Amino acid sequence: MKKLLDQVENIVDDALDGLVWAFPQYLQRVPGTHVLARVEPKGASKVGIVSGGGSGHEPAHGGYVGYGMLDAAVAGEVFTSPTPDQILEGIRAANHGAGVLLVVKNYTGDVMNFEIAQDLAAEEGIQTQTVVVNDDVAVEDSLYTTGRRGIAGTIFVHKIAGALAESGAPLESVRDGAEQVIHNVRSMGFALTPCTVPAAMQPSFTLTDDEMEMGIGIHGEPGTHRQKVKPARELADEILHQIASDLALKPGEDIACIINGMGATPLVELAVFAKDVAQWFHQVQVNPKFVMMGEYMTSLDMAGASLSVLRLTGDMTQWLLAACDTPAWRQGVRHDQ
Amino acid sequence: MKKLLDQVENIVDDALDGLVWAFPQYLQRVPGTHVLARVEPKGASKVGIVSGGGSGHEPAHGGYVGYGMLDAAVAGEVFTSPTPDQILEGIRAANHGAGVLLVVKNYTGDVMNFEIAQDLAAEEGIQTQTVVVNDDVAVEDSLYTTGRRGIAGTIFVHKIAGALAESGAPLESVRDGAEQVIHNVRSMGFALTPCTVPAAMQPSFTLTDDEMEMGIGIHGEPGTHRQKVKPARELADEILHQIASDLALKPGEDIACIINGMGATPLVELAVFAKDVAQWFHQVQVNPKFVMMGEYMTSLDMAGASLSVLRLTGDMTQWLLAACDTPAWRQGVRHDQ
The DhaK domain covers which part of the protein (chains A, B) (predicted)? Predict the structure, then answer.
């Protein structure tokens, strides 16, 4: 496997510097850490939002730092949880006196390290709340989790919690809003090719020329089953059926969705897949009010995609549409429904 | 090779439908054509801007349709020039009575078909001007061109011509602004892996596990030479040296740049590469005022990157910073220099 890198051991450090250089109006690096924090001034009474996890999922999470989403993102090594001391640095950077919400994806290492960091923050008098995202319907337990994994649905949690925080909502309300999203979002993905962790330089698994893996996570961990490569339409049907069943989605309901590329999927293919997703929603009479298509939560150089569906309840649409400006957020709106 | 597709012969049609569905606030399809046109109202006196070319380069060109860039984008089949009748449809959609600028990348088929379309438009009384982008410094003539190829530097032409048009400038001024960009922009790219045209299902060329191709175009056409894979820093040096020589770039000059992923390059690697680019500019004392990093002009599933450097002359910075809202444009600004 070939990578565009300098020293493989410096990949996270180098990439964080590159991101700050490319997006200086949004991002600054907390000196001596793997934390990217917001540049622009924030109100003193605003709840801070921190997310993070292993690297290799770019633009997650640094790409979501900015107005209306995260105050700080903490980057671990590739596919490795950030350490508690780094997470604590992120909490400190995000704290403006009104408390900090930690948005954690459900992986054993992340959950444990964010918990420790939360304890350390408490010792410093920083009030925190944690939500754990577990949107992946593919598997109940997995290689790295007890319970379901957290994947691209996390972006909706960032957005809605971020908008609530920006509006001046107190910590408990921001947490409750995030919990509402977690309660109503489901995701599932597939891989056409494996991904290769730079330090390993060997693919995390192998697939033959006509095989794919369904229900894959974002770390190259196994999915639910292997199958022959199917047309995009059948993949959309298979995934959306599983998501809709789990959500108990009913005709007439309003939803938001993310059509997410896994890192090496050409945009032209993702656009074809989007057409199939649109047709499925139309057939089952579900109303996509808010559509996002692009690379939002990747898995290094994996080819494949994931779908995330959020049932829109309460004020969610308002918070999804609220002003937001970060390197990787793209406003997505359906005007015609 | 595995692709996320339905019928391979429908890839362009399906992808255009998917793009319109995902970005309805920007894009509409001219019925019965492969043309994506702007949704939002435009002033009657505005010069129209049309670009286009083969598909497989997404987000080019549909992703640049919207306020401050293109009025219409014409999509050919994968890596194939759009036909003159389709280009004519694009010109019609972009024409509001003040004439239309055609932004063409220098490939023999594109140049010929845009010329024919221009003649057809003249017969309908639509005034047009054409500019041909030839920013690739790698090769003088190539498999598909006489003279240099047009690649990712085209995005700067779209942006600056689009901003001029939006400001109410007449057709000749918009064309002159575009020519100024073409005169001052240079690009060069490389591939770590080949790309695979869906209908062919075989890579367009082969590279061994430790080989890369320098000076590659955006269609899998040959570059200047093959070499062992080098660290990102050496690739940045090699490419920027060639670009800067060709541009006769001098210390103290202001530039804009695009760090462009070719389709299958993970963002974490592109960020590492960006750091190296930043260091090179710093060493040669060139001032990057405007930085863009991401996928702007791709080559299907090719892993690799290209760099584009624009010398900022006259009012270019103003037009780069002018308001713009399209699916794929991201404002990139250096605040600190």
Answer: 7-329
